[in-house]
Structure formats: C-alpha cells, structure tokens
Amino acid sequence: MQTSSSQPARLRRKESFLGLHFDFHAREESTAVGKDVTPAMVEHIIEMVQPDFVQCDCKGHQGYASYPTNVGYRALGIVKDTLEIWREVTARRGVALFMHYSGVLDEMAVKHHPDWARVDEQGKVDPHTTSVFGPYVDELLIPQLKELNDVYGVDGVWIDGDNWASKNDYRAEVIAAFQAQTGIQEIPHAPTDPYYYEFSQFCREGFRQYLRHYVDELHKHNPDFQICSNWSFSAKMPEPVSAGVDFLSGDFWLQNSVNGARLEARGLRHQGLPWDLMTWSFGGQHTNENQEDFSTKSVIQLQREAAIVLALSGGFQMYFQQDRNGAIFPWQMEVAREVAQFCRARQEICHRAEPIPQIALYYAGSTFYRQTNVHFEAYDGTLKPLQGVLQVLLDNQYSTDVLMEHQLKGHTADYPLIVIPEWNRLEQDQIEELLAYVHNGGNLLLVGPQTASPFADALQVELTDATQEQQPIYLEHAGRLARLKAANAQVRLKGSAQAFGRWYPSNNTTLPSSHAASITTYGQGKIAATYFNVGQRYLESTTTVVRDFMHALINALFPEPLATVTGSHLVDVTLNRSHGKIAINLVNTAGPHADDKVHVFDEIPVVGPLTITVRCEEQPQRITSQPAGSELPFTWSEGKATLTLPRLEIHEVIIVE
Fold first, then answer.
1. CA within 20 to 30 Å of 132's CA: 104, 260, 395, 456, which one?
2. InterPro entries this protein is in (predicted)?
3. What is the 3-state secondary structure (H, E, C) of 18-31?
4. pLDDT tens-digit profile of 152-193?
5. Residue 69, domain CATH
6. DSSP per position, 587-607
7. pLDDT level of residue 649 (50, 70, 90 thresholds)
8. What is the distance between the terminal CA atoms of the chain, rounded to a whole angstrom?
C-alpha cells in the first residue's frame, strides 16, 4: 500500500519533537493479531495525543512479524493486517509512521537458519542472536525492510535489539578473519584471557560494518527512508557517528528513569544528529519467573521524565505496550494526552536549544571499551563511576555536559571546568591535551587516585600506598564525617600544591588524617584531584558530606558559573541559549524516582523558594518564567541579576532577555 501525493505532508524525524511508541513483540502464542485493531483506534490515538510520529510493532525479538510479511516469519495467527491500518490512518492524518523492528535479536531467524546465528564462547549456536558476520542481514533484514518501504510506504525504522545485543562471535570464519588480520592465534573466551579486548574490538567493528551495510543499502533503495539503530552512538556506544543513520534514539531505564535520562540525554546531545529519547510509560520489574510486573506510571511521573529530556533540548517519545492482539489500551491515551500537552507547552523554548558550556564531564570512550566486558552496554557496572560523578555535579546544581573524547577534542577551551571521573587509563594524547588546556587557563578536576596518577607532576604531588581495593575511609567536611568505601591513596604534597580537606581511617577526628584532595596552579590555570574514588560510592550510597565536599572543591576551581541556584539540592540546572536568550532549565528531582520498590507515584514534593543569580554583561530588560510567561522581579548589582522563584513543581525555564 503506497501513500498518495495528495495526502498531507509528514514531518521528517529531524523536524519532529513528540512521538508515541507501541510494541508487543509477537510470540508463538500470538494467535489473534489484529483482532481489535481498527482505524478508529488509530484515529483515537492521533486525536488524543497529536504526535509528530508513531512507532509501532512489526517484528520483535522473538522474530515473528506482526504483519503478513512475504519475507520473514509471520505470527501464527494474523487475522487482520494491522500495519495497513496504521499506515492508512497516519498518512491521512499527516503523521509519520516508523517501525519497531528487532535487528540482531531474532529467534525465528536462528531457529530456521542455525547457520545465521552467532556462536557463543562455548562453541554453541546462540538461540537468540544472529551473527553480524553472517548472511542474515542480506537474506532477511534488508529484504524485509525493503518490503516495509515498498508495500506499506512507512517513513522509516527504529531498529531495536541491535548494538546492545551484539556480542563476541566465535563462528569459524570470524576466528579465521581475526587471526589473519591481527596475527593473534590464541582466541580468548573469557574477559580474563589474553587478547579479549582485541577480539572484542574486532567484533565491535563487525557490528559497525553490519550497520553501515544495511543503512547504505536501504538508502540506495530509497534515500528518504529514515533509519535509526536504537542506542547506536549513544553513551552505550561512545564514539563518533560512523554510519549514515538519519537520527539517534534510545529507550531509557524502566525504573530509576530520572537518573537514566540524566545520563542518556547527555550521551546523545553532542553527537551532531537529531535525537530523541523514549520513556517507558510503565514502572515495575520482571519477576523471578520472568513474568512482567508492570503498572502504568502517573502523569506527573512521566512529565518529570520528559522534563529531563526537554531541558537538554531533545525530542521525546512515550512507549505504551500493546495488547497481545496488537490493540492499544484506550484509557492510557488520556495519560499520554496530558504528558503531550506538558511537552508541547515547552517545545518552542526547549527543542534544539543550544547548550551554554559550563562543566564538561569527560567520557573516555576508548577506556570504556577496555573496561567493559560487553560490546555496547554497561550491564557490568563500567559506567557507574561516570554516573555517580554526574549525579554529584547535578545534585550541586551545576549545569553539566557529558562529552566523549571526539566531542571535547579541540573544544576544551569552551569549558571553564573539565572533570575527569575514575577512568583506569587515559591515552597520552588525551593527557597532553588536558594539560595544555590547564596551562592556557582552564581548570581541571581529577577524581580518584588512579585518574590523578598520570598528572602527578602537574599536581605537584607524590602518590603512595595507592590501592584499587574498596577500603573504608571517613571523609570530613564542615565538621561532619561520612563513611565511604572506596579506592584511595596517601599523598605527599610538593611545591605549591595546597591541601584540600581530610579523611580519617575511622569515625574519630582525633586520629591521624590524610589529604582528601589538593589544588595547585599549572600555567595560567588550576588542577585539582581527589585521592579517593567518588562516583560509584555516591551513586550507590549517597551522603551529604560527599556532595558538599565536592561542591566546595569545585567552587575553588570554578567560583563563578553563569548561573547559581540555591534553596534546594533537588533541582537539576541546565543552561541553554534559546532564540538568542539565556534559558535556565530547572527540573525538580524530588520524590522516590530512584526507589526500585516504588513503581508508580503521583506526588512530587514542591521545592522552593529558589534564589537564582545570573551573570549578565548588561542589565536584563526582563526575566520570565516559562511556559507560563510570568515576569519575575529581580535586582541588579555588579553584573549580576538576582531573583527568587517561589516554587518549582516539575519544570520551569527562566528566560533572561
């Protein structure tokens, strides 16, 4: 079914802001697909929510197509062509239609073609995962996506189960190619084996080539067909975009979604392509029996998750599950409508706003690939130190960008402060660029003894008794102590290095103590380091002492950010430039959003009053709170405007004109 040229124009993904996602991953027991799907159902969705685009199911991880494909493997009981209905109504209403399609994960493809499968480290066929080195991409994936384009005229595809499903592949031809290319004959099977990193890198490149291949082939077939590989070139795949994908996207954590969005939005923001993030509209977990224990989230819960993404200038989409026959649950569209209205009210001031550089949190992607035991994910906890340092920065109301190596290279001078979390190694050229940045007037904070070690000469310190074992110490700040279990080191200060803070071996300030951190000048700038790890401990065992200690240390390096917000630590601050004006995004992060035992909540405690100070070159004409447009009185003195926001419910944007 091709669409007609007389139908209303549809936004391309690069122009889109708000979307809906539906999938149900058809299974063997899906015997009535389409039974309750009607044009009126799709009309109801569009009428209620007014999305720019819709993504709906066509093939899930089990590999069953939920439409009558002539290429792949149909669900066993298709009673109606739901995809024809989705396309007819969305085209008539001027709404773009994208397909949810499972890529590397395809159990039916492997069941029917074991020779298409990945081989695991035990030499066994992986029953869930196709091989990116095998014929699956040419025999099924590309032909099936062409079918979706040619027969149904869909606008594009959002490929799930792709990079994050990629794993080391022990097919005979992969091993032979690896040996021929590298000269390494010993094949590693466990992360502790020699050459495991080299083999993982070879397999990662296999995924990149696979991705480039299917994107290029589909664009040759139809240059207007829009393609995204879910989570490719995100924080899970921290590298330059090397495939011709049309947009970037991902679906952040089911639970603890606020913290998931905090990281993932920053992971996509600087990659140079249109991007959006998807929230799961339900909270819960899988039980021990692998059953779903899910409940639909409240409106305010979803609005706050949206706010994190909007504040960072991204597009937003909501994922609602479909019934097992492919229908939606109509009552949920009232929830979606209210969240959509919240987003639309902020679209003009938030979408595609430009970040104002303040603090750069350094993401060493090359180190990530050396540390993680999976390809393009962090199930093993590799990103916890980065996440924890990000969280302590945000809990101190610092506007923070997460920048990968390639994004920061050549742009260090844009940022008044760069923070390096606990990476266990940095390349020499990275170290040299960071030192040059400090020498020319920048400020650098190194977190943890292992991160600080390569910079010891610049820090003017000597590290002794360093350990990577988690040992308990008691950090002191402002007369209070907090216990944290972390890698640490003793340090001897030299030259002009100044001690900053103390830690004790027990909860007793009469005992001998050790330097917690130090600061010294280096050229025209300053360089500082903590001699204990912060990130993972803060993420898993937050204390106010660590938070306040880090704030004091950062303040010594970066005392005058463009904007300061006081009155609550439960506020995320993001500084943007929107239509040439300073836009201070404030998101209320109070409430039990990080509690895995709370699936749905309908109350976010109001915070405030908040005192906001903004440095300006000249006195503002006016300052307003958006989207309400309320004018805020302010005082002006010594190049700073100071104002009070009486209360923050979920998300406000302070516009300085």
1. 260
2. Class_I_gatase-like, GH
3. EEEEEECCCCCCCC
4. 999 999 999 999 999 999 999 999 999 999 999 999 999 999
5. 3.20.20.80
6. EE--SSTT-TT---------B
7. very high
8. 51
Q: How confident is the model at residue 3 (pLDDT cuts 50, 70, 90)?
A: low
284 and 417 belong to one structural domain: no
Does residue 171 lie within any of the structural domains? yes
pLDDT at 378: 81
- Predicted pLDDT at 102: 97
Of 352, 379, 394, the position where a domain reaches its end is 352
Q: Cα–Cα distance between 443 and 562 in angstroms, integer? A: 15
Same domain, 51 and 146: yes
How far apart CA 479 and CA 525 sit, in angstroms, is: 30
CATH number of the domain that residue 627 is part of = 2.60.40.1180
Sequence-distant (6+) residues with CB within 8 A of 6 are none
Residues 413 and 447 in one domain: yes
Secondary structure class of 484 (helix, strand, coil): strand
Residues 583 and 551 in one domain: no
Under DSSP, the state recorded for 496 is T
- pLDDT band (50, 70, 90) for residue 340: very high
- The single-letter DSSP state of residue 2 is P
Signed CA dihedral, 70, 73, 77, 78: sign only: negative
Q: What is the DSSP letter of 476?
A: E
Domain CATH code at residue 510 = 3.40.50.880
- Which H or E run includes 248? strand 248-251
CA–CA separation, 551 and 205 (whole Å): 40
400 within some domain: yes
- Tokens, residue 536: 């993972």
DSSP 278-332: EEESEEEEE-TTS-EEEEEPPHHHHHHHHHHHHHTT-EEEEEEEPPTTS---TTH
Write out the residue range of the structural domain in which residue 573 sits. Answer: 563-656
For residue range 260-287, what is the model confidence (pLDDT) as tens digits? 999 999 999 999 999 999 999 999 987 6
186-214 core/surface letters (b: 16 or more CB in 10 A; e: else): ebbeeeeeebbbebbbbbbebbbebbebb
- Band the pLDDT of 29: cuts 50, 70, 90: confident
Residue 1 domain flag:
no
pLDDT-derived band at 1, boundaries 50, 70, 90 = low
Residue 3 lies in a domain: no
SS3 at position 156: strand
Beta bridge pairs of residue 588: 571
Residue type, 655: I
List pLDDT tens digits, range 590-620: 999 999 999 999 999 999 999 999 999 899 9
- The residue assigned the tokens 């944007």 is 653
Taking the whole predicted model, whether its pTM rises above 0.90 is answered as yes
User: Are 385 and 332 in the same domain?
Assistant: no
- Kindly tell me the burial class for residue 495, based on how many C-beta atoms sit within 10 Å of its own C-beta (0-12, 13-18, 19 or more): exposed
Same domain, 467 and 512: yes
CA atoms within 13 A on the CB side of 420: 32
The pLDDT of 391-405, averaged and rounded, is 98
Average per-residue pLDDT in the chain? 96
Number of domains in the chain: 3
Our CA angle for 181, 186, 192, nearest 5°, is 115
Predicted pLDDT of residue 399:
98
Does residue 346 sit in the same domain as residue 443? no
Beta strands in 33-153 (DSSP E): 53-59, 64-65, 73-74, 96-102, 117-119, 125-130
Residue 240 to residue 38: CA distance in whole angstroms: 42
Q: Out of 302, 337, 352, pick the residue that ends a domain.
A: 352
pLDDT score, position 290:
66
